[in-house]
Amino acid sequence: MRFFCQTDWCLFGATDVSDGPFPPLSFASEDPMHPIAVAFFSRLQEALRTQRIEPGKIISARMSHGTEIVRATRDGSQLFSSVDGFVTSESGLLLAVTGADCAPIFVRDEKTHTIGLAHSGRKGTQANIAANLVHRMTQEFGSDSKDLSAMIGPRICVEHYDVSEEVAKMFPPQFVQGRNLDLPGMIANELRETGISAERITDTHECTFEHEDRWFSWRRDAKDGRPLSEIRLQVFFAIIR
Question: Which residue from 230, 237, 177, 191 is spatially nearest to 23, judged by alpha carbons?
Answer without folding.
Answer: 230
